[in-house]
Input
Amino acid sequence: MSFRQIRVARHTPSYWRVSFSNPPINLIDPDTILDLSDLVKQLESDTEVKVVVFDSLDPDFYLAHYDVLVDKAKTIGMAPGPSGMHPWLDVMVRLSRAPVVSIAEVRGRARGAGSEFVLACDMRFASAERAILGQFEVGIGAVPGGNPMARLAGLVGRGRALEIVLGADDFPGILAERYGYVNRALPDAELAGFVDTLAARLASFDKRAIAETKGFVDELSLPDDAVFPRALESFFKSVGRPETRARTIALVEGGLQQRSETELSLGMRIIGAGSAERG
Output
């Protein structure tokens, strides 16, 4: 199967690596979602794969965020996935429950939907120097659509979850580790080696034991699937508000979605977007 924006390397039948590649900054768009949907289908049906690692070919951007310039009607109108949910939600819910271990190896920026994807993975390891995570949506007047609130509350606690989603700021790798946003932050030079060693170790174990044990953890730790569609509905409504559009346009004019200082330092730059609404 051919993919548009991901590169799949099967190191062994039981250990796969998937690399994101959608220049210039690894934006998420409908093609990304379709690629991931096809990949998750393979992960669910393959009898040998036990672990999959997601990394990025861009050291500055893991998954920047959703493409704000994509036709909203195209995104809203995408056919539901096998779960019956919008395919973005479907991909994340099915990945979390798949009978394989999913690991996000985060180097670069993972904000908005990029952060949502990272949170849907079973484990998250970040570069101490190069990883930046965040949910910036509230900063432009939108509700985070993939309901990272539900996942973050279980990982970091209510207060820190609210700080992350309402503060709309950037969380460097070391701070993300301290909060529980990621499992560990490691020196950049050691990140890939650490994840590779862990993935190879997991790949050497029995698939059935991995899948059944993970299933028991899932029962106690994953949010109910029903919480996700309501958040996406709120997202679609919120991005249509004039105030949200004004803030988004101001950011786009300032370099959003380009390889720019706005994207590199979005947590700081997003504060200035409010002047477009006041003006």
About this structure: The longest strand covers residues 6-12. The radius of gyration is 18 Å. The chain has a mean pLDDT of 96.
